[in-house]
């Protein structure tokens, strides 16, 4: 078999990312100032972002697809890296885990996400997912003298491997049925299988047309639901988000979730596109349960990281609406929301990180009492992010939810959109409770803020983005529409 | 008939040995059952005409990884370990879900129709030899996933060092 050198143009950003991550790993040996390493990782993300623009195409026989869809997700990942590194610099010094490997693991994890977003083959998808997840497990346990961080890492690792096993089982089933692992070829085969089974069964829209295919879809849904933390595969999220270093929590709440949605969108809309009736039947209960459990359980939390974990579960539920809609408009609203979510969620975590100082954990909701009197600017920023997470205009969160729910309504899922609106009204209780604590209570103890130029910059970027997208959303949604045009 | 018997033996042995691995309270016993388990998995690979993977299974898993496991167990305090409860309280729920999944899979597998076969038939493998066919594939069609796998291993090494070696940082 003659070997033809594949076109490396489309994978250039990934190759450069790998080299830069390895370089940072080595640079850690000679550079003693960790701020320099942090700067290098931000520079790496910037270089990769620059390269992304010129890398479109399909290579490695369809295993790697660099299209507008993956490009949009990769921009979210780069944003996630930059914001996470900005909020990490001071924080990991306070936590006494100021190691260079932290930054290279973040880059490797992001590389895994990029591969997932571009995967045209289930094997690449799986390996990208493992690369992302393995780095995230280590990052979750980065505070290795902290028992909660250890617990987070072990829990994430065990449940993550369990989810991977489900994914592999689903992949092996679909490989047995179709004889290929290429996502687009699977799409054609599934179309044929569905067609055949519709002829053989009398009812044209029989819900269980092809049971092995359905089982495979269920396995995929379970594995991806784990990655996006959807109910009933959300059990790990609160413990892991609470135990992991806060900067890593911010990273995990955006990156793996976005990557999960990237593969969910591509696999379900392309490979299982013909089986839409089947998988909407699976995803609708998951979405409804996710919104319900996320929003209702968040009410009773006393730890802000746990509360944000349940909030992130609930947001996964909202975003599932766009997938369920199954149209390119629905997918565009998911992309749009994912970007907005990255800004508002990392912004909220940046405020949470500021409250952590030497000898003060600052992750209880009661620590926010009277923050507006002692630190008015931090309180005002938290107010914006809480408003945005609730979905109150003129913040970006409102526009994001608006497009998501609109896409669900126009696809005919009016009751699901109504449910989502009801649950986001419930969510106002626990988001605005923090605002109430900050503005209407007297400060109990003196809270020291550990601000740094990095956090200041991250907060500035996120708050400006949240407000600008909230007022002028058309630019972002039109870019998202171009990215999702293929579906 | 003979292939079915062969497969039936290996498949049921793998299930039984896996159960034994997770239910023993002495970790050394678990590892010994795991050794048998790995050999049976290798047998299953041989049954599929995958002699290279079978050899790797024995050399890497039974040879290298299992010895590492034994080293780790040597570092544990076995007497303490024997007193620790094997399962957490909610194991019946797990058993129920596993049993339900088994029933669902068994009922589904009946209507399973294999898809179109690829070009790697048994005759092709016999003529080409398995090692060569696998090697060619790994370095041509599957070059990209192969490279990603190397990164996964690298991250595992970095992770092990980060989590296990470092003292408290500055």
What does this structure look like?
- The complex is a heterodimer of chains A (about 475) and B (about 170).
- In chain A, about 75% of the residues lie in helices and about 0% in strands.
- By secondary structure, chain A is mainly alpha-helical.
- A two-stranded antiparallel sheet of chain A has the order 1-2.
- In chain A, helix 3 packs antiparallel against helix 18.
- The longest helix of chain A is centred in the middle third of the chain and has 32 residues, at about 145-180.
- The two termini of chain A are about 35 Å apart.
- The mean pLDDT of chain A is about 90.
- Chain B is about 80% helix and about 0% strand.
- By secondary structure, chain B is mostly helical.
- The model of chain B has no long low-confidence stretch (mean pLDDT about 90).
- Chain B has one domain: Four Helix Bundle (Hemerythrin (Met), subunit A) (Up-down Bundle), CATH 1.20.120.
- The interface between A and B is large, with 49 and 37 residues.
């Amino acid at each position: 078999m003659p070997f033809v050198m594949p076109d490396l143009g489309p994978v250039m950003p990934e190759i450069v990312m790998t080299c830069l991550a390895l370089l940072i790993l080595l640079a850690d040996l000679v550079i003693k100032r960790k701020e320099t390493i942090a700067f290098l990782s931000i520079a790496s993300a910037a270089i990769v972002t620059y390269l992304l623009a010129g890398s479109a195409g399909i290579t490695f026989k369809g295993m790697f697809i660099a299209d507008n869809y993956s490009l949009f997700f990769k921009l979210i990942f780069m944003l996630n890296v930059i914001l996470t590194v900005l909020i990490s610099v001071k924080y990991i010094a306070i936590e006494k885990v100021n190691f260079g490997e932290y930054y290279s693991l973040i880059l490797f994890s992001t590389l895994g996400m990029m591969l997932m977003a571009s995967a045209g083959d289930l094997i690449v998808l799986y390996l990208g997912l493992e690369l992302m997840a393995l780095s995230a497990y280590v990052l979750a346990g980065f505070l290795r003298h902290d028992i909660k961080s250890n617990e987070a890492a072990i829990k994430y690792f065990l449940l993550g491997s369990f989810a991977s096993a489900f994914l592999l089982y689903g992949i092996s089933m679909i490989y047995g049925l179709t004889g290929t692992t290429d996502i687009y070829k699977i799409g054609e085969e599934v179309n044929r299988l569905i067609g055949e089974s519709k002829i053989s069964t009398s009812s044209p829209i029989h819900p269980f047309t092809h049971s092995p295919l359905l089982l495979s879809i269920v396995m995929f849904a379970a594995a991806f639901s784990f990655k996006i933390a959807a109910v009933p595969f959300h059990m790990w999220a609160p413990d892991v988000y609470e135990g992991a270093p806060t900067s890593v929590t911010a990273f995990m709440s955006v990156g793996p979730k976005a990557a999960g949605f990237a593969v969910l969108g591509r696999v379900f809309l392309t490979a299982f596109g013909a089986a839409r009736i089947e998988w909407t039947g699976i995803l609708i209960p998951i979405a409804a349960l996710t919104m319900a459990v996320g929003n209702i359980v968040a009410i009773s939390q006393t730890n802000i990281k746990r509360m944000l974990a349940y909030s992130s579960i609930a947001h996964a539920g909202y975003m599932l609406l766009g997938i369920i809609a199954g149209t390119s408009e629905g997918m565009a609203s998911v992309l749009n929301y994912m970007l907005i979510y990255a800004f508002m969620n990392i912004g909220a975590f940046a405020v949470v990180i500021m409250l952590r100082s030497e000898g003060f954990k600052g992750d209880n909701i009661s620590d926010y009492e009277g923050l507006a009197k002692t630190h008015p600017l931090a309180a005002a920023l938290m107010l914006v992010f809480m408003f945005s997470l609730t979905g109150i205009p003129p913040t970006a969160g409102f526009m994001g939810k608006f497009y998501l729910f609109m896409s669900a309504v126009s696809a005919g899922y009016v009751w699901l959109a109504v449910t989502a609106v009801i649950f986001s009204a419930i969510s106002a209780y626990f988001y605005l409770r923090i605002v109430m604590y900050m503005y209407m209570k007297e400060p109990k103890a003196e809270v020291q803020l550990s601000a740094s130029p990095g956090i200041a910059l991250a907060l500035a970027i996120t708050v400006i983005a949240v407000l600008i997208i909230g007022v002028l959303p058309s630019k972002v949604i039109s870019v998202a529409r171009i990215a999702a045009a293929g579906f | 008939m003979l292939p079915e018997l062969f497969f039936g033996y290996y498949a049921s042995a793998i299930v039984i040995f896996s159960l034994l691995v997770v239910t023993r309270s002495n970790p050394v016993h678990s590892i010994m059952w795991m050794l048998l388990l790995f050999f049976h998995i290798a047998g299953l690979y041989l049954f599929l005409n995958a002699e290279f993977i079978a050899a790797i299974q024995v050399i890497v898993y039974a040879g290298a990884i299992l010895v590492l496991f034994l080293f780790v167990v040597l570092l544990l305090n076995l007497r303490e370990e024997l007193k620790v409860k094997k399962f957490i309280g909610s194991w019946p729920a797990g058993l129920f879900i596993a049993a339900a999944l088994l029933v669902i899979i068994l009922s589904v597998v009946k209507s399973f129709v294999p898809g179109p076969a690829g070009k790697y038939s048994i005759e092709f493998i016999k003529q080409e030899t398995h090692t060569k066919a696998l090697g060619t594939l790994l370095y041509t069609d599957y070059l990209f996933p192969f490279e990603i796998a190397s990164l996964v291993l690298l991250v595992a090494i970095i992770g092990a060092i980060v989590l296990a070696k470092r003292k408290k940082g500055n």
